[in-house]
Design brief:
mainly alpha, Serine Threonine Protein Phosphatase 5, Tetratricopeptide repeat, 114 residues
């Protein structure tokens, strides 16, 4: 498949680990893949970052989840995707109890959650 490269395969591997609720396997794969994925593909990268943030949350890494969610909101600001925001909403709600952490407070403010 000419449209699928090594980075795409890494992203899908990370996604599978994330969906299987294996964050310790998902995070390193997604880290490597997303570091080489261009921001020019904002919609796709935002989606992939949402998986990354969810993986951090599943691993109990609340601050890292918040930082990645914040990056996702920044990157997706110009993307017209209701679906992407719906994907982020549960994560934002899971972060809400940790509002005392600066990274979480920042992402909650950016998401318009009080």
């Amino acid at each position: 498949m000419a449209w699928v490269d090594a980075t795409d395969l890494q992203i899908m591997t990370g996604r599978c680990w994330a969906e299987l609720r294996r964050p310790l396997r998902a995070v390193p794969v997604l880290t490597k893949a997303l570091n080489s994925y261009a921001d020019a593909h904002a919609r796709d990268k935002s989606l992939y970052l949402s998986w990354f943030a969810a993986s951090y949350r599943q691993a109990g890494e609340v601050e890292e989840a918040a930082k990645v969610a914040d990056r996702t909101l920044d990157l997706s600001a110009e993307v017209a995707s209701v679906w992407l925001r719906q994907r982020l909403n549960p994560l934002i709600e899971q972060l809400r109890p940790h509002h005392g952490l600066p990274a979480v407070a920042d992402v909650l403010e950016k998401a318009g959650v009080t």
